[in-house]
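Example for reference:
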Amino acid sequence: MPTRVREVTTDEGWDEAVPIIRQLWSDADEEFVRGWRDEEDYRLFGLYERDGDATDAPEPGTLVAVAGVSIQRVLHHERHLWVHDFVVDDPRRGEGFGRELLEWLGEWARDRDCENLALACRDGNDAGRAFYEAEGLEAWGQVMERGL
């Protein structure tokens, strides 16, 4: 089926996206996740599977994957797209939607003069790591953190 990526900006769009995001961040409450919408540089994109064959249908169709991103500048990567959240709806995994959304993000980032696409993958997320490596992402260092 045809798909389309669009930015999630409406309350209704966030209503659809939050349950998918919480598949990755199950320990985060809904209010906290919705608060990301207010972050200045955070943008949420959704991959929608269109119902039927019409590629010009006005309705977006069924949300199957989301990616929360921001463009950042840091010394070791200069201008890059940081992917904060990348989730394909659990029952739809393995259907190529992740690959499609990741490719779209790469094109979107190149159009904005980004040199890299980067993300963090949780320890123990072996399926996610295998997917990212199959899509050409390479491990680069480790993310270290401590609570404040």
Observations:
- The chain is about 30% helix and 25% strand.
- Residues 23 and 43 are 18 Å apart (CA to CA).
